[in-house]
Design a protein that fits this description.
With about 260 residues, the chain is mainly alpha-helical. It folds into two domains: about 1-115, no CATH class; about 115-265, no CATH class. The chain has helices at about 1-35, 40-50, 50-55, 60-65, 70-85, 90-115, 120-140, 145-165, 175-190, 210-230, 235-260, and strands spanning about 195-200, 205-210, 265. The chain is globular, with a radius of gyration of 20 Å.
């Protein structure tokens, strides 16, 4: 009985320590960005937080890096968003409120969404990485060569597809992930030449790129199509008709009505 109490106590303390360290990391990231305005330092903190990825034998490094790509994409996106907030032309009070909100959302990612292994949560993790990664990429890449943008989009596509397919124990995980990566890189190449961004109402210097919304919708249709095929050995129209109509409607509205409200970035 004493042994069981000791195990429970250690488990509770480990859980408290885990929560505390994750909150402290998110807060440290925000404080570092506000006080130093240094992206390399913030990225360094993110990479140091991933020390367990390489704390294994060398032959496991590549597998661990692939498994942590989605979290890395989200974390680096948070760094970029924090930097944009710090550099935005707003009052210090608004800046602190926004940094606090971003930090709270990141803590939610670290503690509530990222640790979950249920399929629905895994899909949500990939969706967050897809939207955040694409949004940040097209917010900062206006001066980059197109080849670099295409490569980053390829990585985002590969990471998110692999993350979702891994939850299905897919035997064709690699080729299907590569296929989605190619699709996303092609979309990125097209979007590079004309990107529309929508200003956020609170911080007018921050944009939500149109392509991030479009890619998320296309990814949703791709996921529902795969899920239907996985369960029924064919893509049933009943399973994808609503997601397809929703996606087509969103893209049509964005392209036909909201282009005039956006700003080329």
């Amino acid at each position: 009985m004493e042994f069981l109490k000791l195990v429970r106590r250690r488990s509770f303390l480990s859980e408290v320590l885990y929560i505390g360290l994750n909150i402290a990391f998110a807060v440290a990231l925000a404080v570092t960005m506000q006080t130093t305005e240094s992206i390399p330092l913030a990225i360094g903190l993110v990479l140091v937080s991933k020390w367990r990825v390489l704390a294994v034998r060398t032959r496991y490094w590549f597998a661990n890096i692939q498994a942590n790509l989605v979290d890395l994409i989200v974390s680096l996106s948070v760094v970029a968003i924090m930097y944009a907030t710090v550099m935005a032309n707003i009052t210090e009070g608004k800046q602190l409120i926004l940094l606090g909100l971003i930090t709270a959302l990141y803590v939610g990612w670290l503690l509530l969404l990222k640790p979950r292994s249920k399929r629905a949560y895994v899909v949500a993790q990939a969706a967050v990485a897809l939207f955040a990664g694409t949004g940040v990429l097209f917010s900062i890449s206006y001066g980059w060569p197109v080849s670099l943008v295409v490569i980053v989009m390829w990585v985002i596509g590969y990471a998110t597809a692999r993350h979702v397919l891994g939850a299905y124990d897919e035997t064709l995980l690699l080729p299907l992930s590569l296929m989605w990566a190619i699709v996303l890189s092609e979309i990125g190449w097209v979007a590079y030449h004309w990107t529309i961004g929508y200003r956020l109402p609170v911080v007018s210097s921050l944009f939500v790129p149109q392509i991030a919304i479009i890619v998320l919708c296309v990814g949703f249709v791709a996921y529902k199509s795969y899920d239907s095929f996985f369960h029924h050995q064919k893509i049933r129209m009943n399973d994808i008709i609503l997601p397809l109509l929703f996606t087509v409607s969103i893209i049509a509205v964005l392209l036909a009505f909201f282009n005039g409200l956006g700003t080329a970035i």
